[in-house]
Amino acid sequence: MAATPLPVTSPPSPPHPLHPPTAATVRSLTAAGDHAAALRALSSLSAAAAPLDRFALPPAAKSAAALRSLPAVRSIHGAALRRDLLDGPTPAVANALLTAYARCGDLPAALALFAAMPGRDAVTFNSLISALCLFRHWLPALGALRDMVLEGHPLTSFTLVSVLLACSHLADDPRFGREAHAFALKHGLLDGDERFAFNALLSMYARLGLVDDARRLFGTVGADDALGGGVVTWNTMVSVLVQSGRCGEAVEVLYDMVARGVRPDGVTFASALPACSQLEMLSVGREMHAYVLKDADLAANSFVASALVDMYASNERVDVARRVFDMVPVGDRQLGLWNAMVCGYAQAGMDEDALEIFARMEAEASVIPSETTMAGVLPACARSEAFAGKEAVHGYVLKRGMADNRFVQNALMDMYARLGDMDAARRIFAAIEPHDAVSWNTLITGCVVQGQISDAFQLVREMQQQGRCTDAAMEDAIAGAADEEPVKPNNITLMTLLPGCGMLAAAERGKEIHGYAVRHALDSDVAVGSALVDMYAKGGCLALSRAVFDRLPRRNVITWNVLIMAYGMHGLGDKAIALFDRMVASDEAKPNEVTFIAALAACSHSGMVDRGLELFHSMKRDHGVEPTPDLHACAVDILGRAGRLDEAYNIINSMGPGEQQVSAWSSFLGACRLHRNVELGEIAAERLFELEPDEASHYVLLSNIYSAAGLWEKSSEVRSRMRQRGVSKEPGCSWIELDGAIHRFMAGESVHPESALVHAHMDALWERMRGQGYKPDTSCVLHDIEEGEKAAILRYHSEKLAIAFGLLRTPPGATIRVAKNLRVCNDCHEAAKFISRMVGREIVLRDVRRFHHFVDGACSCGDYW
Length: 865
Description:
65% of the residues lie in helices and 3% in strands. A hairpin with a 4-residue loop joins strand 4 and strand 5 (851-855). The protein starts with 22 loop residues before the first helix and ends in a 6-residue tail after the last strand. By secondary structure, the protein is mainly alpha-helical. Helix 7 (122-134) packs antiparallel against helix 8. It has 47 helices and six strands. Among the domains are: 224-349; 516-725, Tetratricopeptide repeat domain (Serine Threonine Protein Phosphatase 5, Tetratricopeptide repeat, Alpha Horseshoe); 734-859, no CATH class. One of its GO terms (molecular function) is RNA binding. This is DYW domain-containing protein. PPR repeats lie at residues 121-155, 230-264, 334-368, 436-470, 556-590, 592-627.
């Protein structure tokens, strides 16, 4: 009876082949990378009852593995069993099947095959160790190495590469890596011309965080070795330093490489250019670009072009990145280049451009998007208002078979979180196995973005519980059977949580995070340090904010900007400008647009008109910062608060008309309210009604201006206009953190559990204030009602209730810290001054614009806000 053909999944072979396939045919097709044809040839051999031998099945198993076809691997295994090909002088067939099972995702089958093998050689153990590493079973991989040594099999450089990979993931005990290094030296595994084992050793030390050890190892390479065999070694060292964040050293190694006469290749520049992105060294990146352009091979290298696009985009030169992209012919653009351009646009917030490139890559170049493409374009899909099919992108991901990819899952989580669908984000999170730090951080970020701060902290607690197990479960984990590894909050986790503490003015929670950062040596990270400076500043703890700033070993422009902004918000304009001057003198960071916004805002809040105007007029000349619409708005705010409305009006008119004037007109309208200028206020409001007809604050400010002038009919008309357009004013809300809980209050509300007690205490404070000369500022009430009714409304404003609650629940002398979602009204500002003097407490009130420190009847803003 004829043998049953192997049921491989590739297309059938031609009906009448001119030359019947042989074992040599299978081998040659596999070697050529035509894996589907190799399996067809094997199937034809089986159907023709031709002999299937030890020469045909190993290459066929390799082809099945390349196609990730587990059914084909099982069929080949069955054929080997029927023909007794697993026994014999060499285990070549079994070795090939072991590797194929692992690469097709069936590790249990690979382990069962290994256990059943009567004869094993060095290749068998190399295949087993590689398979265990593929599934991240690092300790079992080292156990297999011990068995290999005990059975007396020779170790090769191939063995060492897999072993070093396993050791590099055991960061809690670097002893394993050092022992592997010593073993390699003892047995001469690093000798010879082949450098890949040496390069793997460099990478291992870097992954273990022992970058200095990697540099010392690299230094043992002699000059002759470096020239004779080493562009790959040099590339490895450059890559190691970049991935370890030591980008300056990476650039030095590249310069040294060129100086020694080693010619950089495409991999060199693809590894080195990211250093220019991280260091913001655009000039060095341009030098590398110039070197590339002088070499035709490098200039035509798509991987180098990808790195250049990424470097320019990371340095906020997306226009140059696009020119590099366009210089590469469409037919030569590899997937990585398309991905770099999509991600460059997305990271720059140019979402429509990112989507346009994404659409073109498949339509024009027939380049199939990868998981990296989708992870890059999904944030643009979420943000783009012009793109309506946001959820449909999830369907596209499913259609492309990418739904199980971790990077795509994280991007989908982020997209749904930005859309406000946290249930969908949590469902995707639940499907990820195992959860790693990135997936946890993505969901935590989603909660923070949606204002679900308590949920975010709960997720961090759950994150730290993952992987905690009993001694028995720990034994399973060592054996490779644990599903999830322990995950610790990292610098990204802290950077995500700290802004949430700042938004809530929850300094106690922020201090807990700070303590964690100190215990885990994360507080010296410049991004975490900047977030801590910002958190303490927004929580009203300016002294702690400055202390963190001063202790940082390195500061970037964000760190400086945060503290300058903080001083301005706290009304300390002189300190803000002193810090700005120190920043310029230190040359540690170059002032940018945000720096000048912070400095000008500080001048505005502190009445430093002349210095503010001096900065505005000198920023382009002295610092190369263009006067953007936001900076014009700052200048308008400075002049407007000082009552120089005509000059402010002239600055607005000097700007081009359109949406870019919104911030300037808004600042000008606020100044008109402050100085009760009805005529100019009407002009500003009408411009804003044209540009932002659905923004409630514009209507409220104009109504305030009319009310303060006693023009009640016009004030009523503005409110009527709001109702007709369906525009509603955001209700005032104030909150205070006590004992780790956030207590919120709305004007006049009675929802809080202690509302009755709070209202009674506020009544008592009200009577005491009235007795000491306090008079309610009823101009803050927009309704045309009796004065007594206005005073009754003012009594229970949200910030007053929060202050009263704080006085009830905190010990005598403790500082009261309250935050509000809107600008504090004149009456509450005056009341807080009276209360601070009556009870002998400092009251820190943060509104949407700035901080107010009330001490002994005076405010830090000097009543100028």
